[in-house]
Design brief:
Layout lengths: L1 E9 L2 E9 L6 H25 L9 H24 L6 H10 L7 H6 L2
Antiparallel strand pairs: 1-2
């Protein structure tokens, strides 16, 4: 095992973070970069699971799970696009809440993004 120490920004402050790896060939910076990228992926999946409620699947087959995850990812991308296109600075969670509230009403999504 190899111990790698790196400085990383956490909550706006530089902190020393310790990583353990069994890869002895990579540089310390490469190991820290890999973990930084992996952390961004973990945050992405956490946000999808929390906002799109992907904890319970409607079906048990591989195809059913794949279909539900693909649909959730498509919804996530569309919602991110609406966030970018919105002239107001709604958070992703706020915009998602607006969409869920208006789901069964006929409403223009762009107009809903501009509501207070």
């Amino acid at each position: 095992m190899r111990r790698v120490l790196a400085l990383a920004e956490v909550d706006g402050q530089l902190r020393e973070i310790e990583f353990l790896t069994n890869n002895l060939c990579w540089s310390a910076g490469g190991v820290a970069d890999l973990y930084r990228c992996r952390w961004q992926v973990e945050v992405f999946f956490k946000q999808i699971k929390q906002s799109l409620q992907l904890c319970d699947f409607l079906g048990n087959s591989a195809d059913a799970v794949r279909w539900q995850v693909s649909t959730a990812l498509l919804l996530y991308v569309l919602m991110r696009f609406v966030c970018v296109m919105s002239s107001r600075s709604h958070s992703f969670t706020r915009l998602f809440t607006l969409l869920r509230a208006a789901l069964w009403r006929k409403v223009d999504l762009c107009d809903a993004a501009h509501e207070n």
